[in-house]
Amino acid sequence: MLWPLGHLLLVVVGACWQIFMLAPLVIVVIVSFTSASYLLFPPPGYSLRWYAAVMELSWFWRSLGVSLIVAMVSTAIAVVLGTLAARALTRGRFIGHSVLEYVVLSPLLLPGVVLGFALFNVLVLMGLENAGLPNLIVAHTLITLPFVVRSVWSAMAGSDATLEEAAYSLGATPFQTFRHVVLPSAMPGILAGTILAFTYSFNDVTISIFLTSGEVTTLPVELMADLEYSANAAPAAISSLMIALMLFMFLLVIRIGGLKAFLDR
Amino acid sequence: MTADMKRPAATAWLQSSPAVLLVTAIAIIPSLILLFQAFRTPDGAAFTAEHFEGLASSRLAAQAFWRTLRVAAWTTVLTILGGYPLAILISRARERVAGLMLAVIIFPLMVSVVVRAFGWVVILGPSGLVNRLLVASGLVAEPLKLMHNEFGIIVGETQLLLPYMVLSLLAVLQKVDPYLEEAAKSLGANPIVTFFRVTRPITLPGLLSGVLLVFSLAMTAFATPQILGGARSPLLTTLLYRYVFSTYDWAAAAAVAVLLAAIAIAFVTVQRLLARVWLKANG
Predict the structure, then answer these.
(1) What is the pLDDT of residues B77-111, one digit of tens each?
(2) How far apart are CA A71 and CA A156, in angstroms?
(3) CATH value at residue B278
(4) Nearest residue on chain A to B237, alpha-carbon basis
(5) Model confidence at A130, in pLDDT bands (50, 70, 90)?
(6) Chain A contact present for B19, CB below 8 A
(7) Fewer CB within 10 Å: C terminus or N terminus of chain B?
């Protein structure tokens, strides 16, 4: 019977594609440990020289700081606004429900370059294009908001409505119900959504590249610029550090909400 | 009861008003302004379609448009070729194995596009992994140009977007009754026939939504073509970037932006329509 052979072929093909998925990441990490002064794979020798070199780069620390601040602040704002909006959306059908849904999820609709340019255009019209940090924070809040709304909405939709009704019938105010019934059960979803929003903001380059100014740039934007000019392995070291951070976040999300957290639609 | 329960619409809108205000002020209004400017003459006096006509007659823009379509098409085909085996394997695997396979596919989504594209630079570059292997084994005399062209962009975007296709297919595959495949097998069908006559038709909605998603994401990607495409192979998105920051032709940039937005919105609309049609057809 051909069946076992066919299955083996399927497994081999699947394995090849999985290698394809991981190849760029694995290779970047390996190359970051090269002892050569330029990008060569496989590396002739191994050393930590490029990590040491990156630690000395002032632009690395500066842009890392900007990325972290922007990600943290915009995620915090997005969580507050998004949780409120998600709460509103879970109230079942009301007038304008789908309008609300479309509006809040709309930043996902537009291509990144369109949003980035539209924002940059407006900023120039207002003379604010060099404001730096506030521009980035506002834009990142915008693009992380839909992620938060989706995750929180999913989490809240899963919570039991009868529990809420029970709380009301026992005399709880809406705020109390929210705080003691809805929030605890939705918390894993909210946390997972927060982490995903943070990573999305930290990694963004498409919109950020339109909003950076002078000293205020994010790490991915600086990395992209550095890629074009330097042929050494410093970008590889920076990339590996970013991969390590994201791996940590990834494992955190799985710990909190499982792989399901990524599959929320 | 509480006022909250009596007027759900009012409280709902009140709660979501900060979010709505933010999105309106930061996304919707700037986009409308850009749309407005795309149809305005440079002196701001009248409405005109000249910027779009300029795009249509520009060889650079036309090439960028067709190149974008080609890249998106090839990327979509490749994600289908990779998506089906992976989705089928995951849907059949035991929970632990399936989880691991899924993690391998989903984790790259959390890594910045810049890092992922850079990985391909190391692999596809003139002195990169692939070329060194090819030259060392004597298969080619000189390094192949695998980067700074459409091929490099296609490879990069395929790795970028394959997870989305896998997830789309997985969503429908998990609804496929395994007994259907068993039944087909017991009636004598070999696995290939089973795939084409039983599995694939059922997964059609997932395939369609995956195709629409991947195609539209491929057409609007920026960082991957910017890094892997090089100056000679612009796509619509990198062309827009060039108009904004290199040639300062913001009118042309606005026109490209409107075009890209229209394409993205068209795809989402089609997807929503299809989803509704499918729901109606299947109860």
Answers:
(1) 999 999 999 998 998 888 888 889 999 999 999 99
(2) 24
(3) 1.10.3720.10
(4) A113
(5) confident
(6) yes
(7) C
